[in-house]
Design a protein that fits this description.
By secondary structure, the chain is an alpha+beta fold. It is built from 20 helices and 25 strands.
Length: 718
């Protein structure tokens, strides 16, 4: 087996003449072309096909224990047989010829059942009384499971209640947990993991159908009690590429298990039952000893080895300064805020963010934090203090976590904005009448760049107007810092090109297609008022794609740089006097290579404008449910114009402050028309992305982006 494209196919670093046998130098099978490392990176490779084949073979018990019954089609070039074990019935059909073949199979004993192909889970036509006709391509192999016909497609995993805890029967319950990762126990655990994963906010595959999960590595973590392991779970979907997630696991027995179930019910993965006793398998993040072990590992540059790879804990040069020496021990606590990762706070000094979705390459949060700390004067971000890295063989390192300085704060800018909006709506409700010169609601923020805000805006918005200006200033300072590099190729600005503009357009089209497809699929499950809004948005699909074409209809003259990538009010901490920007990893649903692409900083600007809109309408819905207006939940007509005015005023203040500082930068297009086209397109793309995200994670919130899309199209037309 040729391991990699390195010297001597990865077998040895010695001189090639010193090898026992020479490596393959044939052009077709050269080790630089055919090797395990390259095949492992390609989910469509023969290696992955074989891994999936073996995984299916392990799960389908009839292959190992079932009876064997041959079928005898007239076409002798087609091999067909039945395997049965208990309630499991498998049909195997193989074309032994190099040419396409057909066969008629006598399956009358299974009349009314439907063959379900086991790799793609495609349901074939049901079996009747007549011979079953099937066609096969050259050397094609089918594995079917014969199942009763499905009346409707039901996602059983998603239907499981969150407090459902599966029970695993295992031969023994061992205190060291090693037995659960072996053979049958391991397969039983892999079978229940999809239920646990789907209930986690950080799991990104909620909108996809899981085929199976596989534990690809188990890494013991020393100095933990109870013993803890970092497991890497590969999730294989019925369609698309697999994903790998990080799940720290530990174990408790008897009384300790009952205490865990009562103290941290959402951390429980499964209950174990064996003749020797009972136990509970749960997330190791529920234990302080595990969190403390990770901090000590970074401080002492430790490494933990697993079967396939190792975890390296690497301190930054600033760790001792950030941690401080006056506190010998820092008490860890898990942040309860729902997010795509898991954060551990150590006293008031450090925060460790554990990346749950593991991907090859350096996470942008690690990369950008290091760049800002070492190469720029920008300070409104948490200083990096260390990293956790997973390495497997000669492959690229994978960022497992980042340790940063803890920033004392009064919460994030999202909550601060909602509080400010509550005060705004109270003042609006207290106004006796509407003045005749009231500005029209919903004016596009860019249209207000050249206009002075009315006195009424300052009166009603109050001190938040100054906060919006400050946030615009800090955003511009961040973008100027990211555009300041002239040496590192990963950060040196690059010009817009026709090809890049085309890629923006195609990306926007793909985002729109996914959003409309998911909305169409989930439309019937939405509440009645939101369903009507969803139907309206579905009718605008053609108009959306038409508006995106504006991106490629004119040449944009500007530079593109590294950006935040997932910029919104929740990614900004409010210290009381200033703002600190956090979480530079980009949108978690995108690949790391995609998140590291240089883009227009105006994309961050548009994302923040969308966040202002989100906040204004979330506050609006809150007011109509139980706020000062006291209206019916769906009666928002009276307050909606005021929400749109707030959005326009605050967005205008943010934009003016941003342009005052960054307007002359090379990454801002020289033409106001180009700025307008890009910002509007990015706003529409972000709203469509929000539709997909909310349908997968928070369906109750989907009405916010659905409200925005028709308005954004009207602004486009204007």
């Amino acid at each position: 087996m040729q391991w990699s494209a390195d010297r001597n196919a990865g077998f040895s670093r010695s001189n090639p003449q010193g090898l026992y046998l020479p490596v393959i130098a044939d052009s077709e099978y050269h080790y630089e072309v055919v090797n395990v490392e390259s095949r492992f990176k390609n989910p469509s490779s023969h290696l992955w096909w074989m891994r999936r084949l073996i995984a299916q073979r392990k799960r389908l018990k009839a292959f190992g224990r079932g009876t064997l019954e041959f079928l005898y089609p007239d076409n002798r070039k087609v091999l067909a047989f039945i395997r049965r074990y208990q309630d499991e019935v498998l049909l195997v059909v193989a074309n032994l010829s190099r040419l396409a073949q057909y066969a008629e199979l006598d399956l009358s004993a299974f009349k009314g059942m439907a063959p379900v192909e086991q790799f793609g889970h495609t349901e074939f036509p049901p079996i009747g009384a007549q011979p079953y006709f099937i066609t096969l391509g050259p050397h094609v192999l089918y594995w079917f499971r014969l199942e009763p016909q499905r009346v409707a497609e039901i996602d059983v995993e998603a239907a499981e209640p969150e407090d459902h805890v599966p029970l695993l029967a295992v031969p023994t319950v061992a205190s060291d947990l090693e037995s659960i990762f072996q053979d049958k126990n391991r397969r039983a655990l892999e079978a229940v993991l999809p239920v646990f994963l789907r209930a986690r906010r950080w799991f990104g595959g909620k909108g996809r159908s899981i085929d199976y999960t596989e534990i690809v590595d188990v890494i013991p973590v020393s100095n933990t009690s109870p013993k803890a392991y970092i497991t890497l779970i590969q999730v294989v979907y019925k369609e698309g590429d697999p994903e790998t997630y990080v799940l720290p696991i530990t174990f408790a027995v008897e009384e300790a298990a009952a205490a865990v179930l009562e103290r941290e019910p959402r951390a429980v993965i499964a209950r174990l039952e064996a003749p020797s006793g009972t136990g509970t398998l749960y997330s190791a993040l529920a234990e302080e000893s595990f969190a403390t072990a990770l901090l000590e590992a970074v401080e002492r540059r430790r490494r933990f080895s697993g079967a396939a790879g190792k975890v390296l804990a690497l301190p930054a040069r600033s760790l001792s300064r950030v941690r401080g020496l006056e506190a010998p021990s820092l008490k860890p606590s898990i942040m309860r805020a729902e997010q795509s990762n898991t954060s551990i706070v150590y006293g008031d000094r450090l925060v460790l963010k554990l990346f749950r979705h593991l991907q090859e390459g350096v996470n942008p949060d690690v990369e950008i934090s290091a760049f800002l700390s070492e190469r720029t004067s920008f300070t409104n971000f948490p200083s990096p203090a260390g990293t956790l890295v997973y390495r497997r063989g000669h492959g690229e390192p994978m960022s497992l976590g980042i340790m940063q300085a803890f920033v004392p704060n009064q919460g994030d800018a999202w909550q601060y904005t909602l509080d400010a909006l509550d005060q705004y709506f109270e003042q609006v409700a207290a106004r006796p009448t509407q003045p005749d010169d009231l500005p029209a609601p919903g004016k596009a923020p860019l249209a207000l760049l050249e206009e002075a805000l009315p006195p009424l805006a300052h009166e009603l918005v109050g001190s938040y107007m100054e906060k919006a200006r400050l946030l615009g200033q800090r955003t511009a300072e961040l973008h100027l810092a990211l555009a300041s590099e002239s040496q590192d190729p990963s950060f040196v600005p690059e010009p817009f090109s026709v090809l890049y503009q085309r890629s923006i357009y195609q990306t926007m089209r793909n985002v729109a297609s996914q959003a409309f497809q998911l909305l169409r699929k989930n439309l019937r499950t939405l509440p009645e008022p939101v369903r009507g809004l969803g139907s309206e948005v579905l009718g605008l699909e053609g108009e959306v794609n038409k508006r995106f074409r504006c991106v490629i209809e004119r040449k944009v003259i500007a530079m593109r740089t590294r950006i935040h990538g997932d910029y919104h009010l929740g990614q900004v901490l409010n210290t009381g006097k200033d703002f600190v920007i956090i979480d530079f990893e980009g949108e978690p649903s995108r690949s790391i290579s995609d998140r590291r692409i240089k883009r227009s900083p105006l994309r961050d600007v548009a994302c923040m404008l969308r966040s202002f809109h989100y906040a204004s309408f979330m506050a609006l819905f809150k007011q109509t449910v139980g706020g000062v207006q006291g209206a019916k939940p769906d009666d928002i007509s009276a307050l909606e114009p005021w929400a749109r005015r707030w959005y326009s005023w605050v967005s205008s203040a943010f934009l003016k402050s941003y342009m005052e500082l960054a307007g002359a930068a090379a990454f801002v297009p020289r033409s106001i028309e180009d700025i307008d086209v890009l910002v509007r397109a990015y706003l529409l793309e972000k709203a469509l992305y929000e539709v997909t995200y909310e349908l997968n994670n928070r369906p109750d919130w989907v009405r916010v982006p659905l409200h925005a899309i028709p308005q954004l199209l009207l602004e486009f037309a204007g």
